[in-house]
């Protein structure tokens, strides 16, 4: 049967419909959607047990507790190294420190080394997606020409280039310590030996100002606090408030400033558009007693490969996207943040550049049945030596060959290696195989002679 030919008006409408059908038109929801803002608060040397929502009996951290109530608490969150520089390299690159040449201890003021500019940081991934990016706090990934945050994907930087104890004012007069601690804005020194009682608030002030200036577009704020790395200081407002002593004052000041950040996001109407993550770079510096933190039920602290050295308090909150008041008990690592955040931001990662992290959106959303994609996690010692491996619940420390079942023995008190010699051999072989693969494909750190500032007195 032949259909009658449409008239000219009908033909015009039909042609227009065909053209429109071939176009990809944004829906109302697509027009409204934008990549999430990202805020990462990264403290220094804070222990697994140093929050009231982690069970500390005297520390009072109501703002972080509220963040956990409006988000997900991760009980098995690992950083890739038990000390500062390697841990920060892993967070920002999604790689084991050894893969990016940053595994050999920390960067000191006189060092010429740092994270290679050829590495792709989380800031660079997000800036390529149109994000405004900023770092406020402690950098510690190199401070020679070309190695500072503004060389690594951050539009703005305000903070210190290395640890707060690498300063003249904290050394004995008879020690003849030659280095100074600068406070930088971008690459310019704005103060030498800044008043450390004010650093927590000043970093947060800068972060708030940045968010206020850029909240009409996606933004990434990386806020690596200098505290509670020793020597610790609290402002006059918080000094003497905590029954935990000065360490408690410092933690409660950090908590209050997290509260200020959240209040800013609420005031600007972008809280539900923002993924906020809180964690620490490594475990507590136990040798400083009351001025160091607590790993809670975990053994060891900073500089060790016991759980207390690398398992950290961690909270992820994004109202409306992540569940509230939830707990993720699967293994998640700091290396997972880059690929996970990139996926949420719609950023494609270079398939030719190997990283070690995984997309863990399913875990953060607490999807039923979601399991950690980290089939094995390697532990590296403070100077980069392979130290151990975790697979499932089992953890093997290579020297002296101790085996722990972490679900049964979170405090690593019962070595069961003698009962499982075959498992020990299997885990050792796997650790050596994985480490050899990383070593073979490792990319070098950068070495730069040119100074940005002279750290010597």
Short description:
The chain has 457 residues and is of the alpha/beta class. It contains eleven helices and 19 strands.
Structure description:
The chain has helices at 8-21, 28-32, 62-69, 84-93, 122-127, 199-214, 246-267, 307-310, 337-345, 361-364, 421-440, and strands at 37-43, 72-74, 77-78, 113-114, 132-138, 156-160, 182-185, 188-192, 219-224, 274-280, 311-312, 315-317, 326-328, 332-333, 377-380, 386-391, 394-397, 402-405, 446-447. The chain has 457 residues and is α/β, with parallel strands linked by helices. It folds into two domains: 32-364, Alkaline Phosphatase, subunit A; 377-446, 2-Layer Sandwich (Arylsulfatase, C-terminal domain). The strands form four sheets. It has a ten-stranded mixed beta sheet. The chain has a four-stranded antiparallel beta sheet with strand order 15-16-17-18, covered by helices on one side. A three-stranded mixed beta sheet has the order 11-3-14. A hairpin with a 2-residue loop joins strand 7 (182-185) and strand 8 (188-192). Helix 6 (199-214) packs parallel to helix 7. The longest helix is centred in the middle third of the chain and has 22 residues, at 246-267. It is globular, with a radius of gyration of 24 Å. Mean pLDDT is 93; it is low at 1-31.
Identify the notable features of this structure and list them briefly:
457 residues, alpha/beta, Alkaline Phosphatase, subunit A, Arylsulfatase, C-terminal domain, 2 domains, 19 strands, 26% helix, disordered N terminus
